[in-house]
Amino acid sequence: MILTPLLALAGLFQTPAPDVASDPLAPARAGLLQCYAAAIDIDRKICAGISTYTFNADGSITTTSVNVMNDDPVILLGAASVVYVRDGAECSRIADHADHFTTIDVDGVRLEGEDLAMARRNLADIITATLGNGEYCTRYTRKADGGIEAVTSVNGVEKPETRSQVLWIRPEDGWRAVPLSSPST
Fold first, then answer.
1. Contact call for residues 46 and 178 (beta carbons, < 8 A)
2. Which helix (H) or strand (E) holds 131?
3. What are the distances in angstroms from CA 8 to CA 3, 4, 37, 156, 177?
4. In this predicted model, what pLDDT tens digit does every residue of 75-115 receive, in sequence order?
5. 3-state class of 89 per DSSP?
6. Straight-line distance from the first to the last Cα atom of the chain, in angstroms, rounded to the nearest whole number
7. Pairing assessment for the beta strands 46-47 and 176-177 based on DSSP bridges
8. Rounded CA gap, 157 and 61, in Å?
9. pLDDT in tens, 11-27
10. Which listed residue, 4, 16, 44, 123, has the most CB atoms within 10 A of its CB?
11. Smallest Cα–Cα separation from 137: which of 97, 93, 167?
12. Is 105:111 a contact under the CB 8 Å cutoff?
């Protein structure tokens, strides 16, 4: 059974969740990871993507993520970006998506060399054709049920197809970025 994000948050946090409206990365500053998906499977601890944030000594913020790009074959994409907070949103500038892709695994096999380069370029072309390049800003809003919804805008234009649920999770709780169709383990 998939619980509402409000119930999940009650069980995941020992203290109240930080206010994402005033500082969208407050939960990350508190050491939490970001789980996101159109539908998060609370019982099996499954997300479509998991992001980790690093707050660097020079003031910059780096996010690294693992994202499910396809269910069959299972394609996992690793990515890294420098992000910043502007007007209550998490933002980054992307000139070429391929520059941000660090790893691509297909059915558990990590691509390397020319295979990786070609897959990075193909995925980047698909994302660029769909969303474009430029400034990506994700705004997090608290929903009436207590959950958090994320919507990304590109160059100031909201992209409704990016709408997802967000759950801030503890690193030690065993969450995974895998397809929702994955068998339970």
1. yes
2. helix 113-131
3. 6, 6, 14, 32, 17
4. 999 999 999 999 999 999 988 888 899 999 999 999 999 99
5. strand
6. 16
7. parallel
8. 24
9. 333 334 555 667 999 99
10. 123
11. 93
12. yes
The amino acid present at 2, given as its one-letter code, is I
Distance CA 162, CA 134 (A): 15
Token readout for 110 is 């990590």
The dihedral through the CA atoms of 103, 44, 10, 141 has a sign that is: positive
22: its two tokens: 């005033």
Q: Please list the helix, strand and coil fractions of the chain in percent, rounded to the nearest 5, in that order.
A: 20, 45, 35
Tell me the C-alpha distance between 83 and 60, whole Å. Answer: 7
Question: Residue 172, Cβ neighbours under 10 Å: how many?
Answer: 6
Rounded Cα gap, residues 8 and 23, in angstroms: 21
Average pLDDT over residues 21-49: 93
Mean pLDDT (the chain, rounded)? 87
- Do residues 62 and 54 make contact, with C-beta atoms less than 8 angstroms apart? yes
